[in-house]
């Protein structure tokens, strides 16, 4: 399985027991939907390796306690400690309305209420404290904050994201 066909689910952050159970910090707003998984892909080196799950359950808030079939000792757990977990994109719950996954809006056109078409979303930068659309308009790159006050509509059929940018933001890049 290739990482581009998967989404990041979380990271193994600690051992739970001497029998190989591990705790995974999930990257999701709805951790309970991942309680009954049968398998995941574990990133080992440059490969995604399928691991089958004997049992998994929520542990405290955003942690998932997993008992893998292949991991039965502390040393087995040590070998996968810090590894990232992935699932196929096909398992992502469908979002509707103005909610979207970052990967799904790449290639969408951004339509601003004041400036019209301001470019195509080339990527999403979520490494900053405020996630940003990276938008390309001809030879210029614009950075548009991603938040509910700016995004007014997501039209998946037309592949458009409608925004109302703060006054002066687009002018910083275009003029």
Profile the largest sheet.
6 strands, antiparallel, barrel
Q: Structural class given helices, strands, pairing? A: mainly beta
Instruction: Give the proportion of residues in helices.
Output: under 10%
Based on Cα principal axes, name the global outline: elongated
Order of strands, widest sheet: 1-2-5-4-3-6
The CATH class of the largest domain is identified as Mainly Beta
Number of domains: 2
Mean pLDDT over the residues: 92
Q: Unreliable stretches, pLDDT < 50, 5 or more residues?
A: none
CATH architecture of the largest domain: Beta Barrel
- Strand segment count: 12
Taking the alpha carbons of the first and last residues, their distance comes to: 44 Å
User: How big a fraction of the residues is strand?
Assistant: over 45%
Number of helices: 2
CATH T-level fold name of the largest domain? Elongation Factor Tu (Ef-tu), domain 3
Topology pattern, helix = H, strand = E: EEEEEHEEEEEEEH
> How many whole angstroms does the radius of gyration measure?
20 Å
Can you say what the CATH homologous superfamily of the largest domain is? RimM
Structure description:
This protein has helices at about 75-80, 170-175, and strands at about 5-15, 20-25, 40-45, 45-60, 65-70, 85-90, 110, 115-125, 130-135, 140-145, 150-155, 160-165. By secondary structure, the chain is mainly β. It folds into 2 domains: about 5-90, Elongation Factor Tu (Ef-tu), domain 3, CATH 2.40.30; about 100-175, PRC-barrel domain (SH3 type barrels). Strands 1-2-5-4-3-6 form a 6-stranded antiparallel beta barrel. A 6-stranded mixed sheet has the order 10-9-8-7-12-11. Strand 8 (about 115-125) and strand 9 form a beta hairpin. The termini are far apart.
């Amino acid at each position: 399985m290739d990482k581009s066909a998967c989404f990041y689910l979380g990271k193994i952050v600690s051992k739970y027991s001497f029998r190989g159970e591990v705790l995974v910090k999930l990257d999701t707003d709805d951790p309970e939907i991942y309680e009954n998984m049968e398998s995941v892909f574990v990133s080992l080196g440059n490969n995604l390796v399928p691991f089958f799950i004997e049992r998994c359950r929520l542990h405290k808030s955003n942690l998932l306690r997993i008992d893998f079939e292949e991991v039965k000792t502390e040393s087995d757990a040590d070998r996968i400690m810090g590894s990232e977990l992935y699932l196929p994109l096909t398992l992502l719950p469908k979002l509707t309305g103005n909610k979207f996954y970052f990967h799904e809006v790449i290639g969408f056109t951004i339509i601003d209420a004041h400036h019209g078409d301001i470019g195509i979303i080339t990527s999403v930068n979520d490494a900053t404290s405020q996630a940003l659309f990276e938008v390309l308009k001809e030879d210029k790159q614009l950075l548009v904050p991603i938040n509910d006050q700016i995004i007014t509509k997501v039209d998946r059929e037309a592949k458009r994201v409608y925004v109302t940018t703060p006054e002066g933001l687009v002018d910083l890049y275009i003029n």
